[in-house]
IS1 family transposase
Amino acid sequence: MIEVADAAMAREALSRRMLRCPDCGAALKPWGQARPRTVHDLGGHVTVRPDRARCTACGHTHVLLDACHLPRRAYTVRFLGQALAGAVRGHGHRQIAAELGAPEGTVRGWLRRARRTAEQLRVIGVQAVVALDPDALPTTDRGDPLANAIEALVAAAVAAHRRFGHGPREIWAQIALLTRGRLLALAPAG
């Protein structure tokens, strides 16, 4: 799985064999498309069909997934981000689920996973901010590890957009790139 900032630009780079295999570093070539899937977004449903690539050396295949989407999730990163933002504001999983129109168990699982890996998410955000714009580093402790993590990730996403000026404008897509598509899939610390 390769998270890309812009699927159209990635498709063009792939056709020119400018993308590299994350496993061995050799050039990737187009290899068709992944199966279509429908995901929930804030405005309704979206059907996506990501491009696939195959390494010219090791033969491994990879899916080029737009940063707006998370691997193996039926919801966009923006949808998930709204749930996390609701939790930071102090809302419970039932209220968030009702506001978003998502199953309570799904939202509860997201919040549990995010809270379990909050410190790792905060570290990712802080490291990115320090590398991109140390002046933007959040200095306030919110008292909630998840709130600290989200604040650090948002600061990093804003710093990345300011520094590079391209990539996704959507803050949650930028966060998906920073976490390499593993916003909810990091291995728990400890």
